[in-house]
Amino acid sequence: MNTIHLACVVGARPNFMKMAPLLRTLQAYPQVNPILIHTGQHYDHNLSDVFFQELGMKRPDIHLEVGSGKHGQQTARVLERFEETLEQGAPGGGAYDRVVVVGDVNSTMAATIAAVKLGVPVAHVEAGLRSFDRTMPEEINRLLTDAICDMLLVSEPSGLENLRREGRPEECLHLVGNVMIDTLRWLLPKAQARDTLDRLELQPKSYVVVTLHRPSNVDQPETLGPLLEVLCEIAADMPVVFPVHPRTAQRIERFGLADRLAACPGLRQLPPMGYLDFLALTSQARAIVTDSGGLQEESTALEIPCLTARFNTERPITVEQGTSTLVGNDPEKLRGGLRSILQGTYKQGKCPELWDGQAAERVATILAGKDGNR
Ligand code: UD1
Question: Does the beta carbon of 105 sit less than 6 angstroms from any atom of ligand 1?
Answer without folding.
Answer: yes
